[in-house]
Write a structure and sequence with these properties.
The complex is a heterodimer of chains A (about 200) and B (about 210).
Chain A: H1 12-21, H2 26-40, H3 47-55, E1 58-59, E2 62-63, H4 66-85, H5 90-99, H6 104-116, H7 118-127, E3 135-145, E4 156-166, E5 173-180, H8 182-202
Antiparallel strand pairs in A: 1-2, 3-4, 4-5
Helix pairs in contact in A: 1-4, 2-3, 2-4, 2-6, 5-6
Chain B: H1 7-13, H2 24-48, H3 52-62, H4 66-86, H5 90-98, H6 104-126, E1 134-145, E2 156-169, E3 172-182, H7 184-200, H8 204-213
Antiparallel strand pairs in B: 1-2, 2-3
The chains are: A alpha+beta (about 200), B alpha+beta (about 210).
Protein name (chain A): COMM domain-containing protein
InterPro entries (chain A): COMM, COMMD4, COMMD4/6/7/8
Organism (chain A): Gambusia affinis
Chain lengths: ~200, ~210
């Protein structure tokens, strides 16, 4: 039913945490949003700052436990990344959050932060989308074979290609080394140029 | 149910009541504190593994041989794991511990130890099971193949899926991932099969069995 959840029902834990979000002042919440956005964009989150921002908030009569802090960070992270995922504009996000019970100042503050970083968020999410085995680098070498054990005068060029790809687990890399004869290499080059022309036509 | 403690076990735990020579009141205090200290050490060892240096330190402080300390702590650990394993009630725990012939205070402190840490010990024990890889995360992408080397002007939709699994073992958890590719029709079939599996939990047969387990 909510666009920022991808036209699905809002998860129960989000509903529960929105009511706890309402208990923090809206200024503090905007600063929290800034921290959470830094985390999503990969710049790292400063837990000390987050702790200070939530230090004097009280939920009911007992002070915040570390589980509550993590829950607030999680719900902000979910709302912001889910809204960016489904390309929701900030007015719809604001009205939907108010429907869920977030007070108006909080919703406006959140949506202002969201709008500022909207395209940066989408770029980051695009980068982290699933890619199988990205190509990291290509290095090549052209040799000239003079002779071999089979034939005394060979006199042919040979291309060596080294391809570095990212392996299946993040952080690992695989290396593939191929040596190609000139004719095969020309075929490979022509085919790749045709594929490139097709890609450029789509841009 | 009552825990039946073997003779060796009782002998190891009797270390906790060994007298030391000074006045009666201070002795009792010493024993309760010793028991609490050893209880803490035992639970630490259950969480992180044993540390022989602690045995030596304790043995020096209490002027007893190292093996006695070690057996005492191991006896405590075994008592805790067995009681948590069977989820015995407090009454049963007290009755089983009475068989050791300790004083009332010692029994109370052992009971407190058990009650406070029962769930923790159970969660540690449950991690020792070697099991199948479990679902961790699923990433997917939807692509359309427009051309290939042999055929241009195609439209072939494909869903690429990376299934991330984790398997827990004694040395921690290991991650593995599986890359899969499917066309939309197979994907829809997969979804309907999995939904049928979920619906099977709600049949009357499954409900009858779940009722009886609870």
């Amino acid at each position: 039913r909510f666009r920022f959840c991808g036209d699905l029902d809002c998860p129960d834990w989000v509903l529960a945490e929105i009511s706890t979000l309402a208990k923090i002042s809206s200024v503090k919440m905007k600063l929290l949003c800034a921290q959470v956005l830094k985390d999503i964009l990969g710049e790292g989150i400063d837990y000390d700052k987050v702790g200070k921002l939530t230090a004097d908030a009280k939920f009911g009569t007992c002070p915040l436990k570390s589980g509550d802090i993590k829950a607030t960070v999680a719900v902000l992270s979910f709302i912001l990344s889910s809204a960016a995922k489904h390309d929701v504009d900030s007015e719809s996000l604001s009205s939907e959050l108010q429907q869920l019970g977030l007070p108006k100042e909080h919703a406006t503050g959140l949506c202002k932060s969201y709008e500022d970083k909207h395209s940066a968020l989408q770029d980051k999410l695009r980068d982290t989308s699933l890619r199988l085995r990205r190509l990291d680098s290509v290095s090549w070498r052209v040799d000239y074979t003079l002779s071999s054990s089979e034939l005394r005068e060979v006199n042919e060029p040979l291309v060596h290609l080294k391809l570095q790809t990212q392996g299946a687990e993040p952080g690992s890399s695989d290396t593939t080394v191929v040596s190609i004869s000139p004719d095969k290499f020309r075929v490979l080059l022509t085919e790749l140029k045709q594929a490139q022309a097709m890609m450029n036509a789509l841009q | 149910m009552l825990l039946v403690l073997s003779e060796d076990h009782k002998e190891h735990l009797s270390f906790l009541t060994k007298t030391d020579g000074s006045g009666k009141n201070s002795l009792r205090l010493l024993r309760v504190e010793v028991v609490e200290e050893f209880g803490r050490i035992a639970l630490d060892f259950l969480r992180k593994g044993t540390n022989p240096k602690i045995y030596e330190g304790a043995a020096r402080k209490l002027c007893v041989p190292v093996e006695m300390v070690q057996h005492g702590v191991e006896g405590l650990m075994f008592l805790m794991t067995e009681s948590s394993k069977h989820m015995i009630s407090e009454v049963d725990f007290m009755d089983s511990v009475l068989a050791l012939g300790f004083g009332e205070e010692l029994n109370q402190s052992l009971l407190q130890l058990y009650v406070q840490h029962k769930h923790q010990v159970r969660s540690i024990l449950s991690q020792l099971l070697c099991n199948q890889p479990a679902y961790h995360n699923l990433e997917w992408r939807l692509d359309v193949q427009l051309a290939s080397r042999s055929v241009r002007h195609q439209i072939v939709p494909m869903v690429t899926i990376r299934l991330l699994l984790t398997r827990s073992s004694d040395v921690g958890s290991t991650k593995s991932c599986m890359d899969l590719q499917t066309d939309p029709i197979s994907l829809l079939h997969m979804i309907s099969t999995l939904e049928a599996a979920l619906a099977a939990v709600k049949t009357s047969h499954a409900r009858r069995i779940l009722r009886n387990i609870k």
